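Dear colleague,

Thank you for sharing your sequence with our group. We've completed the structure prediction you requested, and as agreed, I am returning the results in plain text so they can be pasted directly into your records. Please verify that the sequence below matches your submission; if there's any discrepancy, let me know and we will rerun it promptly.
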Amino acid sequence: VHFLDDDDDEKNAVHPVSVLDFESEQKQLTESLSNGLLKIDVVFDIATTERLGSFLARGEGRVLHFSCHGHPDYLAIENGWGAMHQLSVEDLKEWISAGEDNLLFVFVSACHSRSAGEAFLK
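Please find the predicted structure tokens below.
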């Protein structure tokens, strides 16, 4: 994933961002959830624009733990071809409102994620 950096001396310079440790996060979540009294079905997937939009539209999940890089103006998710898609809070709100209202808990793990997390509030 690459960020387009408008604040750089070079206008519209593209810079790589660090890789998030999804494997470790998945392991920790799986271990934590397996220690509980309830049986919880967990699915881990790469949050591409298509997958996240489909998940929200279907309304099948009750909990969403979402990890990605964040920017003050957007969340950085994959576009399906390994490049970054800038998911604005307004687009996220549209995706949420277009889907079923079944989510009970959402955790957005990203820098600058407050506005994205608040998008899930009704």
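Summary note from our side: Residues 48 and 78 are 5 Å apart (CA to CA).

Kind regards,
the structure core
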